[in-house]
Amino acid sequence: MRRMWSAWGAVLALLGGGCDAIDLSGVTQRNAKTRVRPEPPGEHCRFGGQAVQSGLDLDRDGLLDDAEVTATDYICAAALPEVSTRTRPEPHGANCALGGQAIQSGLDLDANGQLDDAEVTATDYVCATTVANVLLRVRPVSPGAQCALGGQVTHAGHDANANGLLEDEEVSREVLACDEPASVLSRMRSIPAFTAPCDGDENGGSAVEAGVDLNGDTALEPSEVEATGYACGIEPSELKARHQTEPAGSHCARGGTRVDFFQDSNHDGTPDPGGFTSTVYVCHSIRVHDGMFVVTSPVDLVALEGVTHLRGELRISAPTLTDASLPALSVIQGALTVVANSSLRRLSLPALRFVGGDVAVRSNARLDSLTLGTAASAPLWVERSLLVEDNPLLPTLEGLAAVQPRDSITLRANDSLVEPGQLSFVTVLQGSVLFQDNLQVKRTPFVHLTRVHGDVRITNNSLLTAPFGLEQLTSVDGTLELKNNALLEQLAPLGQLTSVGQLELIGNPRLENTVGLDKLTFAGSIHLQGNTGLLSAGDMPLLQRVDEGFFVRFNAQLQRVHRLPQLRGTGAVTLTVNDALTSLEGFSRVTWLHTLEVLGNKQLATLGDLSALRELRFLNLQGNPALTGFNLGELARVTDDFVVVDNAKLPTCLATALAANVFQGDPLGGVHIFNNDDATPCP
Fold this sequence. Notes:
Layout: H1 2-16, E1 32-39, E2 49-56, E3 71-76, E4 83-90, E5 100-107, E6 122-127, E7 134-141, E8 151-158, E9 171-179, E10 184-191, E11 205-212, E12 227-232, E13 239-246, E14 256-263, E15 277-283, E16 287-290, E17 293-295, H2 298-302, E18 309-311, E19 314-316, E20 323-325, E21 331-332, E22 336-339, E23 346-349, E24 354-355, E25 359-362, E26 369-372, E27 380-382, E28 386-389, E29 403-405, E30 409-412, E31 428-429, E32 433-436, E33 451-452, E34 456-459, E35 475-483, E36 499-506, E37 522-529, E38 536-538, E39 545-553, E40 560-562, E41 569-576, E42 592-599, E43 615-622, E44 637-645, H3 652-662, H4 667-670, E45 671-674
Parallel strand pairs: 16-18, 17-19, 18-21, 19-22, 20-23, 21-24, 22-25, 23-26, 24-27, 25-28, 27-29, 28-30, 30-32, 31-33, 32-34, 33-35, 34-35, 35-36, 36-37, 37-39, 38-40, 39-41, 41-42, 42-43, 43-44, 44-45
Antiparallel strand pairs: 1-2, 2-3, 4-5, 5-6, 6-7, 7-8, 8-9, 9-16, 10-11, 11-12, 13-14, 14-15
């Protein structure tokens, strides 16, 4: 304390002496400055924060420069809640068809080291699949730019580390599927009197029906009906329908549409007191993936889990795939092609209701189980054609009972096919039917087919003894061909057939006659060829017209063409190399022909069975060694060609006389008579 006062005493002494005062005008004050900078997590702040730096603004530029910083204080952030996860078993159901795990995640807000129920903000599902070591992860997508109404994104891949979880680096296929509203339609239609389920009501009633507009044509087709009710004794004009959204619950697990039908006799838009009411539910969860989808591996197939509508084509061609099961897929707006899957054993799409193109299941060497749609539920409408071909181990088509193609059906070269099932919804086809090279099948599956606008070809089916399954067929606009069926011996199942564009019976060695075509009235043409066991042809009691011709060729044992009592005319009768043919009684009422052609029939002695024939354009008789006379007493005119050649027993003079009487063409260019019997005189 003494030293301090000594110093102040010296200062006072100077000030009190005679010296001038000290000049402080040149001393300038420097302002103190601070600045704040983010502080990353590190040694000063574990979770980051802010660095508050301070010092004098020595250069008086109004800023605290780095060189001016003399002190730094830190304001550190508190620890952030950690992200936690937990795993729960997920049962079989909407989120995982085969069960799996629910991976729940969120912030551990209370820092208790575990994820509580209230802290869960997101759930991913890791689902079991039918493919060994392949997992599926399903993540919900919130409504937004990707999916206006929300949806899901699925990831699939191999569980490389076998930990039961699908990690990001294991994902090899991603599929986005967006939720879209389904368009539900309804209709009312009449039920005739005394028709089930109104069979006790003489006034009949109404069926009330509802379903999803699968093909987008704004009309409820029979194949789209999912729910039905009945109002007996009430006309459709007395009924109205009201649609309401049905939330997820007991009626529809994922929601749908409630359709209330009610009686409104006075048409005021409200239900009649005490009148008929009925409610049906159309349950739907439309989850749409846009674009063509190609499956080349099991992982690709698994990634489609949960997709209900595919806006494009589905093509499955995966050599290592053994089981192709898509239980949720109901609509494919393009084609479905399953081809060259050398390991595939099972193909199952039980919910499928609509395919906008062809369905082709072809060249799957080990396929032995095939299910498309569920017949007990509703038909599977195929906008174009069905083709099942070259699946050598496929034993049955019973899993196709729901299929209803618009165009054509091809069932070919399925060597193990024994039970073809019944395509019960197939009644009319705009295209054709090909049933060929099925070595073990004994009948066709077309039990309700009535009309085919194209062809029906039943060819080379080794055990087929008759065209069983075609008992309802009435009309074929194109060709009805039964060809090279080794055991075919009868045509009785065609007993309802009334009209055919072209009937071809070719190369069926066990077929002895054509009995069974009892209702056939019209044929564009009839071809009987190469049926080595055929003894008689005809037996068509109602046949009236054969426009193009009746062609009988190379039937070695054929003895007669008979029992065509209504046939009056045809374009042509061509008889070629039928070695045992002796009788043409079936043509006895024919009065006109375009062409009569008789070639190489060894035992045919006369044409007298055509005694009613009056008019021809072309007559061609060649190589009939037993022919001795014409006996065409009514023939009055042959206009274009008269050819009688190489008939060893036919007197030439008979031929020249007939030509002179009936031929009306150019005698120099149109008459050809030679190599007949020149020795026998005429009476």
